Amino acid sequence: MKSRTIKAILIPVISAVISGVVLLFIGQYLSSSKSSESVPVKPTRLEETKKEPARHDASASHVPTSSDPEVHKKYLAQGNQYYNLADYDEAIHYYKLAAETKPDFAEAFFSLGNVYHKLKNYDKAVYYYKRAVEVQPEYAEAHSGLGRTYNNLREFDKAIDSFKKAIACNPQYDKAYRSLGNVYYNTGKYQLAVDQFKRAVEINPQSAETYFDLGDAYRQLQDWSAAAEAYQQCLRLDANHAQAQERLREMKELSKQ
Description:
This protein is mainly alpha-helical. The chain has helices at 2-38, 45-48, 71-84, 88-101, 106-118, 122-135, 140-152, 156-169, 174-186, 190-203, 208-220, 224-237, 242-256.
């Protein structure tokens, strides 16, 4: 009788406790679900990573816009960056953008000529150097570039004419005198070569290479003392100039015969 009384008391109590526990777990579950729905999912590192820029957007400087009045100069500067990195395709891309943006921008055409000359595409180099001097007839460097290209094409008369035009535009342009001297040397006109090399070193007496060229021209004229003096001056400016050293050794051996 006593046992039945205890059971009658415990059963409702146990049932109430179990119900409370169940309700507690249900409440926690619902609260957790609601909280997880309200908190945004943090993106993964892969999702946060930005895409690589397009090839032509990979410049170190900001890509200019067509509304920028100086855009042609900025395209040229970007082309120069790529040229210095020997990325000639990208250099051509930006130089052409510069020329398209400003059709009378002689420096863009000159730069295109330089790239194509570097790539030994001499026909295109001639085309762009000509475009540069059409836009700016007094552009000495473009005339000289045209001369160098004609020299490589062995069109020596055209090369001579171009270098003379470069000198007419800039009478202090020592590189044009030296280049003209080299054309005369290559065509066997050694005295004319001497005259041009001498003029070049008058303007720029620090050019070891021009003194070497001068020595070679005197050597062809068999003016041995003048040749030796030119080679020695080359070595004063560049003590490690191997060709000048070799020329002097050869001349010394010849003098013993």
